[in-house]
Write the structure tokens for this entry.
Amino acid sequence: MTTSLVDVRTIDKSFDLRGGGTYLALKGIDLEITKGEFISLIGHSGCGKSTLLNMIAGLDLPTEGVVLLDGEAVKRPGPDKMVVFQNYSLLPWLTVRENIGLAVDEVMGDLPREERNAIVQEHIEMVGLGPAEAKLPQQLSGGMRQRVAIARALAIRPKLLLLDEPFGALDALTRGNLQEKLMQICNEHELTAVMVTHDVDEAVLLSDRIVMLTNGPGSGIGGILEVDIPRPRQRLEVVHHPSYYSLRSEIIYFLNRQKRVKQWRARPHQTVARHGLEKVNLDLGFLPLAASAPLAVAEAHGLFAKHGLDEVQLIREPTWRGIVDGLVDGTLDASLMPAGMPTWMTAGGHGGAPLPIVSALTLSRNGNGITLGRRLAEQGVHTVEDYRAYLKSHEREPHTMGIVHEASMHNLLLRYWLAANGIDPDKDVHLQALPPAQMLADLKDGSIDGYCVGAPWLDRAIRDGHGIAMAGDLAIWPGHPGKVLGVREDWAMAYPNTHIALTKALLEACQYCADPAHWAELSELLSDRRYLGIKPELIRFSEGSPDVDRAGPESEAAVPHHLFFGEGLNRPSRTEHLWMMTQMARWGEIPLPRNWVEILERVCQVGVFSTAARELGLEAVSYQRQGIDLFDGLPFNADDPIGYLNAQVIKRDFSVAEIPLAPPSRR
Amino acid sequence: MVPTSPRRPGATPSPLGWLTRSSGSWLPPLLGIGGFLLLWQILSITKMIALPAPTSLFTEERTRNLILYPFYDRGGLDKGLFWQTMASLGRVAQGYTLAALVGIAVGITIGLKPTINRAFDPLFQFLRMVAPLAWVPIALVLFQKNQPAAIFVIFITAIWPILINTAEGVRQIPQDYRNVALVLQMSNRRFFTKVLIPSALPYIFTGLRISIGLAWLAIIAAEIVMPGTLGIGFFIWDAYQQNYVGEIVLGVIWIGAIGLVLDRLMAWLQTRISPGQ
């Protein structure tokens, strides 16, 4: 006994091409729709979402697989699965009443005429078109026409209502009104509906579930989101629901990702080998951060080309998640990434199979801090003790702090610092991953208490008067690793010389970035819209920037905040990566790998780094960094991570597990 | 409520005032036609062309009689212009009706069935290019008699625009309308009356309107070469044979006027039957 009304069973759809051959539009679509559900199909143009709708409607038949409606295969269109077409499809020579009447007469011909008229009348009233019932469609506005189309569809009481971008051609105001009307009708009549849309907000507002389709050829379901916003929904209230923005950003992320993959596919991708390097055409991912300076410098100063990498393209992603997906699906060759990400992905923290990521270079250290919103500062919260007291006294309210990614140092440092100060980072507050550029907006409207993020987003709030600095990273772990260079292990095996060349180019860029004399130029460079796209004076590399306005420019002495280059700074450190793994295990993000020695051995590509440094004549920087020096003075013994974890007071129930890694191999 | 335009101060409601105000619409055509007639008159008077001047249509007795007494009937072919025209129009009506019936039916068939369309389209395109006059000998051979031959010539000239436009109209029925019919599971008969015909109607009327002009052109051609038939075409030919140049000119003017009226009539019918499309 199945409760599903519609059952789409592994359907494929291919079209014959004009010049011979076939185009596979949809592949392996599986979808069950229960009675009373509202489903949205969302995806880029040409992803086959309308094709899927047409197959549910029976207007088109799948090449493989079957669509079941109430357990019966859909073989032809019929009034039980009525479609509301994108361009209304009203018959222009019939009036509003006649258009609806035509459908009712056709489908319910066996009812007496009076009854049919009553049904038509009821539905004209339902969509509020009483005064226009004698008008021809061309005398109506787009919104009114679509209302007629909806009335026509509902009048014949379909089991399933199918809507193909029903509001696509309408202006925003009309669209909003019609969406509410449709929602109300669907609720009252417990309709089951499937809607194709490309409007993210519309999908979130109307749907119970949102089906996201990947790009063709061979489109599939890329993900299904459950919308947990209670009904009845009001357009203006929905946006205040906590899930709204996360759903919205989830869909937007998905669509952007699809676009990226599409662009990537559109370019030729044969590996270009040149100058004794296995591959010189690289796609290098980064996020708009001050720590991206080495990448920008290497590009602007031609350092990639100097080391033989002629065709390096920097790809800006809005979130770290985009970087993770880019590495997983191979659209990125290498990327700037948070220091914790290589071990996190190697241990399978991203949710897929463990994907060994290796790092041969630490690109930056420091540059982070914890900012608290002005709302709290006004209530006397300035120190972490204040904040702890504040959390105690405001226990009932939700308290959220922003982080950029669970594998980033921001998260690990913030959690460490909160926990060391007696605040449980999961129970007392809620940490949420947000794109760095969005944090300021969230802090302003008070939806987060504060955040831990890197420059330049760190001190933006303080400069703009929306927050205060609660703790700088120098007060937590001075010289902590910030961003590293990460590549897939199989990539590194396949292109070893390219990997060395890339490390050399970026190490040289790091050296350039470390010179205070270049900081003004760096700010200027990074302010370009290809990189950060914000004013150069907001991008700073020196210490003390939050108070710079008060203390005057002389205090802005060259105390380096960001560390880009120096003795022991750039060499990948096994101890640090181990510390980060223990922290991620502490908060349950990954199990603590029993084979941590193997993982560290594989992740930290010290050999590549040393070769690069030696070839650049920079042997001095290849000395190993000593120890880990956190503010609370708790010693970290790299030989006994489990003992270290057990010694922590606030922690989750961490697990220790063997991470099954395939032996290193080229892809 | 009907919006009433506020009367401008000083504007007189007299017919003379209306004439002055609407002069923009009637003055240019009047000047154009007047100028043309004047030029013709001058050219005739100065003997630069052999045609009689426009005024001679009234001064010459034969043509004046024809103008003043269109209804006279002295038996045989010696009848007033009205009867001549009616005879021609009668033939047109028969041939044209036949063309419309066959053209719409065949047009719908080939519009719905691409295979049939592919089979016959080359033939239709070929036949379409044959001039009406070229059909006359064939028609005479086929039918041996003037009357059916003339009707056939009209039929074969007028059918192509109707047929081709109807087929196009059927092909152009938007997929949306077809989908509506599919989803509502309309019967073929209902689809035909509720969707196909209303949707293709504008195209059909375009074809009908083009064809009425062609039919009228064809009848003249047909009658000219069919001696001894009552009709405006033979009237002109007869006048030419007897060198009554004034009568030829009068006949030509008459033909043009009738053609114009027929075209307007179809245009009016089109707006009545398929409003606003």
Residues 1-7 of chain B have pLDDT under 50 and may be disordered.
